[in-house]
Amino acid sequence: MHKLSVIIITKNEEQNIRACLESVRWADEIVMVDSYSTDNTIAIAKEFNVKIFQRDWDGFGAAKNFAMSQSVGEWILWLDADERVTPELREEILSVLALEHSPYAAYSMPRRANFLGAWINHCGWYPGRVERLFKKFAGKISATKVHEHLEIDGAIGAFKNNLLHYTDPDLFHYYEKYNRYTTLAAEELADRGKKFHLSTLLFNPVWIFIKMYFIRLGFLDGIPGLILCVCSANYVFTKYAKHWELSKQGT
Q1: Of the N and C termini of the chain, which has fewer Cβ atoms inside 10 Å?
Q2: CATH number, domain 4-167
Q3: Domain-by-domain residue ranges, the chain?
Q4: What is the pTM of this model?
Q5: Do 139 and 105 form a contact (C-beta atoms < 8 A)?
Q6: pLDDT of 183-242, one tens digit each?
Q7: Which of 12, 139, 144 is nearest to 78 (CA)?
Q8: Cβ-Cβ contacts under 8 Å for 248 (sequence gap 6 or more)
Q9: Is-contact 189 242, C-beta < 8 A?
C-alpha cells in the first residue's frame, strides 16, 4: 500500500477544518500550511496529529507547493478546508493506493458544491471535475494568484464518487471572499499582459449569466441557483472593472 499525504492550507478556518480533517483522518499524514490563523484553527488541527507549518502568505499555489515539499507520501491529495472526502471517494482512493503500479499520474473527481445551504446540480458547477489526487513527483500546483490548478505530467484517470465542497454558507461569507478574489483575478490578468477591452466589461458578465442560468440549466437550482448566477456575473464584471483600474495606473 502506497502512502498518502493530504495537503491543506488554512487561514481562520475553525468553522470548516474539523469536518475536513475528520474526512481524511485515515490518511498516512496530513500536512497543513497556516497563514497565522487568529481563531481556533490550529487548536483543532492539533487534535488530529497534523503536521502544521505557519508561514507568511505568498499565494495559493506557493503555499500548496510548500505543503507538498513537506510531505512524505508517494501520493498527494490536495484539499481545501471547506471540502470533504466522502466514504465512497475514500474507497476509490484506497484502491489506487493498493495498486503496485497505477497507469495514471493523477485522478480527477466530481466536486459537488453546497452554496447557501443548497446543493448546486447545474449552473455548470456539477460535476465540475477537479484533479486532486496525484503522484508527488508527477505534478505541482500552478503559481497563479487565484484559481490555482494542478499541472500534471502524465495520464489522468477519473473517479466516480464526489468530493463535497461547502463553498459559501451565506452571502456574507461569499462577499468576504469576493473583494479579495476579484482583485487577485484582475492582477493575474495584468501580470499576463492582458489588455483591457471595453467589450469584455460589457459582454462577458452577460454571457456568464446566460450560460450558467439558461444553457447550464441554473434555473433548475431554484433561488440559490439564480443568486449564484447573478453573483457570478457580477464577479466577472468586477474582475474586469478592476482590470481597467490597473490598466489606468499603467498609463
Answers
A1: C
A2: 3.90.550.10
A3: 4-167, 170-249
A4: 0.94
A5: yes
A6: 999 999 999 999 999 999 999 999 999 999 999 999 999 999 999 999 999 999 999 999
A7: 139
A8: none
A9: no
